[in-house]
Amino acid sequence: MERRSFLKKAAVGATVGAMAAPALAQTQPTINWRLASSFPKSLDTLFGTAEVFSKRVAQLTGGKMNIRVFAGGEIVPALQVVDAVQNGTVEMGHTAPYYYFGKDPTFAFDCAVPFGMNSRQQTAWFDQGGGRDLLREFYKDYGVINFLGGNTGAQMGGWFRKEIKTLNDIKGLKMRISAFAGKVMAPLGLVPQQLAGADIYPALEKGTLDAVEWTTPYDDEKLGFYKVAPYYYAPGWWEAGAQLSFYIGIKEWEKLPKEYQYAIEAASYEAHVTMQAEYDAKNPAALARLIKNGAKLRFFSKEIMEASYKAAMTTMEEEASKNAKFNKIWEPYKRFQRDQNQWFSVAEVPLQNFMTSRK
Fold first, then answer.
1. How far apart are the C-alpha atoms of 99 and 195, rounded to whole Å?
2. Is there a contact between 220 and 96 (Cβ–Cβ < 8 Å)?
3. Spatial distance between the Cα atoms of 325 and 345, rounded to a whole number of angstroms
4. Residue 165 phi, psi dihedral angles, 5° rounding
5. Minimal CA–CA distance to 232: which of 240, 224, 244?
6. At residue 251, does pLDDT exceed 50?
7. Half-sphere exposure at residue 123, Cβ-oriented, CA atoms within 13 angstroms
8. How much is the average pLDDT of 168-192?
9. Exposed e or buried b per residue across 187-205, where buried means at least 16 C-beta atoms within 10 angstroms of its C-beta
10. For residues 301-329, b (16+ Cβ closer than 10 Å) or e, as one string?
11. Are 241 and 117 in contact (CB under 8 A)?
């Protein structure tokens, strides 16, 4: 008898819930936002992550919140997304935070720093290690709030017209490279350049560039760098786990109903995980195709890696000594990375090394 009574009440509750959900949705406002991406539509994983996010927000809000995604250059230049969000040109952006290194090198912590954490470690630091709070305090000065926006995983070291065997081979090379890595490599003789994705191939083809780094085999294949610069190097030590971010203007964020804010947070996590999964799934086949089509896979020498690491740590410490905002994040970041590396050395690295040796 008691069981029948419970089932009856549960059925009534489910019916009421089903009726209440549409009614609740009807009480919420319809909101239309624009999102400026830093990436061209041809890069379906980078640009597509914003589309995954937008679609999920619409689903979670019953179609009440619609976020239209625009490729780099459609509304604002690809490298001016943070400015567009800051000044209200768009409500939202999707970008690689280290593009704004020139404003303040502290932006890089929300993306990747030289010899920084890998993808899993970066997400752990952001979500569980205090990174979110530190970064959001920093972003207040820019009037934006940030959310996880995907991660490429460890990137490749780039495409070169010639083999790079020693430090002498780096001297004088004009290379498209992230701003932070460029600052690290400049004392070693590299001539760093920073260009948006759509501008890279023409510069490489014309000889304006001698080398270029972009992301991973899946995207690099699409951009065709191997046709001009066949030597493909690894690893991209400046981007061990390049994290992207969704930016929202704080004023726009605060206007949203709580239910919409929850939807954005949930959708950003889903998009974040989806990007890494896509790259991990697609990169092996892409690398195999690149090699089949003439790419020559190489690895940076120990000499180059050691010199780059030393230069990176010197650059980081110098920046921390003169930039209080940078130092406030650098110190806890270092501690978290040290602990993560110790843990990974116990279980993750030995197992991965063994499995790799099995072929």
1. 10
2. no
3. 31
4. -100, -35
5. 224
6. yes
7. 17
8. 95
9. ebebbbbebbbbbbbeebe
10. eeebeebbeebbeebbeebbeeeebbebb
11. yes
pLDDT of residue 25: 55
Alpha-carbon distance values, 280 to 153, 287, 353 (Å): 8, 11, 18
- The percent of residues above 90 in pLDDT, for the chain, comes to 86
Mean pLDDT of the chain: 92
By the 8 A CB rule, do 84 and 90 touch? yes
User: How far apart are the C-alpha atoms of 213 and 341, rounded to whole Å?
Assistant: 25
Rounded Cα distance, 224 and 217, in Å: 10
The CA distance from 219 to 204, in Å, is: 16
The answer, yes or no, to whether the previous bond of 230 is cis (omega within 30 of 0) is: no
Contacts of 19 by beta carbon, 8 Å cutoff, 6+ apart: none
261 phi and psi, to 5 degrees?
Answer: -65, -40
- What pLDDT is stored for residue 197 in this prediction? 66
Q: Which two tokens stand for residue 227?
A: 């046709």
Check pLDDT > 90 for residue 68: yes
With 0-12 CB in 10 A as exposed, 13-18 as middle and 19+ as buried, what is 49? buried
C-alpha dihedral sign at 205, 211, 214, 220: positive
321 contact partners, CB below 8 Å, separation of at least 6: 327
Give residue 317's identity as a one-letter amino acid code. E
Rg of the chain over CA atoms, in angstroms? Answer: 23
Q: Which one-letter DSSP state was computed for residue 225?
A: G
Q: What are the tokens at 110?
A: 């929300």
- State the SS3 of 67-91: EEEECCCCCCCHHHHHHHHHCCCCC
Q: How far is CA 165 from the centre of its chain?
A: 29
122: Cα separation from own chain's centroid: 10
- 157: tokens are 């070291």
